[in-house]
Specification:
This protein is α/β, with parallel strands linked by helices. It has 3 domains: 8-361, TIM Barrel; 368-402, no CATH class; 404-435, no CATH class. It contains 19 helices and 8 strands. It has helices at residues 8-14, 19-27, 32-41, 81-93, 109-118, 127-135, 144-156, 170-179, 188-200, 205-208, 210-220, 241-259, 274-287, 308-321, 341-361, 369-379, 383-389, 393-402, 419-427, and strands spanning 67-72, 98-101, 122-125, 161-164, 223-226, 264-268, 293-296, 326-328. The protein has an 8-stranded parallel barrel with strand order 1-2-3-4-5-6-7-8, surrounded by 8 helices. β7, α14 (308-321) and β8 (326-328) form a beta-alpha-beta unit. The chain starts with 7 loop residues before the first helix and ends in an 8-residue tail after the last helix.
Length: 435
């Protein structure tokens, strides 16, 4: 069927109701008339490559439900694509709205195509990773055209958004050397672009040929996720000159994308002290004109390897409450290893808790309804009702079954000392038996 629009943004600007926008409006309990202007002006993105036909569309914007992304993919040390696909299935089952394939080894295209042909979640990639693998050549031998051709390949494979590190330029090389960051550049994609510029002496190809890249994204309706190459990798580097200068440039690139009807998300910091999170969100909103903000965590302390899903959930809740729209999950394996299935589960649950808590705080429509149902179920000691409301019902039920109480109307922590049980009996005029 021939479409009379190019991208979701183009359709919204023309007043054309797409199936994807209609679906998102229903999920968010919004009218089409409320949502369409937000997509038209770029404050909401609906990443949905026209070739990803099995997608369950999702809207990403600060006034919508906070969405979460799950990073997956093989590496040279962990090469099993079947395991990665199992993680994908787990992630979708547990409510992740987006999957990013960060594979850095082997033939990546079959897995990527499997995702876009079978997975209903939003699919994202970082084409600069795949460039070295695709051509099987050293980084300094790749040309700007090589990088751009891989972006086109990913678009043709049905990828919904691509992370592009467009915001660093040759000027950034001097800034990094001059300002002596504690952790330099910790973005994997950003470091590859930085290294390529240093070795070739050429300008960042993703910046220099940005308009050509936008034409590809417009053709397939691929959302650009503007990667933050200079995101802080430790608290000492948070909100420094390199981070903010890049953010200014990302704001300029956002505007250029919107001029071509290309949807944009802006990626944000990784490690930020709690007292700087709200300010970071406000600066991004101002410089990037309200484009959806996609944050990694942020992690609020540097000393919790093995528990970074917790540090990220703390920062993610604060970031989303203050305007972030999209949380990239962090697992207990962050900084240590490729996450296994259990790490993925813990990372997703931590991020879902953070996103939901933030949605309640910022008054997202319907966000607190399930919490109120949980309160009702707890008041009457309805255990099955509580499991039905739980974010992870299987774990909740398993914990209770593992330590089952003597009396079904209590739990093994309080027994007949249960406050809920005592209050119910007292208010009903019943005898309260403790011993």
């Amino acid at each position: 069927m021939q479409l009379n629009y190019t991208t979701q943004m183009d359709a919204a600007r023309r007043g054309i109701l797409t199936p994807q926008l209609e679906s998102v409006a229903q999920k968010e309990r919004m009218s089409v008339q409320e949502l369409m202007p937000l997509v038209a002006c770029g404050k909401v993105a609906i990443p949905a490559n026209r070739l990803h036909t099995c997608i369950d569309p999702q809207g990403i914007g600060s006034m919508l439900r906070t969405k979460i992304n799950v990073n997956l993919g093989v590496s040279r040390d962990c090469k099993d694509y079947d395991v990665e696909m199992e993680k994908v299935l787990w992630a979708v089952q547990m409510g992740a709205e987006s999957i990013m394939d960060l594979s850095s080894h082997g033939d990546t295209q079959p897995f990527r195509r499997k995702l876009t042909s079978e997975c209903p979640a939003i699919i994202g990639t970082v084409p600069v990773y795949d460039s070295v693998i695709h051509y099987q050549r050293d980084l300094d031998t790749l040309t700007a055209k090589d990088f751009i051709d891989v972006i086109r390949l990913h678009a043709q494979d049905g990828v919904d958004f691509v992370t592009l590190h467009c915001g660093i330029t040759c000027k950034t090389i001097e800034q990094i050397r001059k300002h002596k960051r504690k952790m330099n550049i910790v973005s994997r994609g950003g470091s590859l672009v930085f290294a390529w510029m240093c070795m070739t002496g050429q300008e960042n190809p993703f910046y220099e040929y940005y308009d050509e890249i936008l034409d590809i994204c417009r053709e397939y309706d691929v959302t650009v996720s503007l990667g933050d190459a200079c995101r802080p990798g430790c608290l000492a580097d948070a909100t420094d000159v390199c981070q903010i200068e890049e953010l200014v440039r990302l704001g300029e690139l956002t505007k250029r994308a919107w001029e071509k009807d290309v949807q944009v998300m802006v990626e944000g910091p990784g490690h930020v002290p709690m007292d700087q999170i709200a300010a970071n969100m406000k600066v991004q909103e101002t410089l990037c004109m309200g484009a959806p903000f996609y944050v990694l965590g942020p992690l609020v302390t540097d000393i919790a390897p093995g528990y970074d899903h917790i540090t990220a959930a703390i920062g993610g809740a604060m970031a989303a409450m203050n305007g972030a729209a999209f949380l990239c999950y962090v697992t207990p394996a962050e900084h240590l290893a490729l996450p296994n299935l259990q790490d993925v589960k813990q990372g997703i649950i931590a991020s879902k808790i953070a996103a939901h808590a933030a949605d309640i705080a910022k008054g997202v429509r319907g966000a607190r309804e399930i919490d109120d149902r949980m309160g009702d179920a707890r008041r009457v000691l309805d255990w099955e009702g509580q499991f039905a409301c739980a974010l992870d019902p299987q774990t909740a039920k398993a914990v209770r079954d593992d330590r089952s109480p003597e009396h079904d109307d209590t739990c093994s922590m309080c027994g007949k000392f249960c406050a809920v049980r005592s209050m119910n009996k007292a208010l009903n005029g019943e005898y309260i038996d403790i011993l």
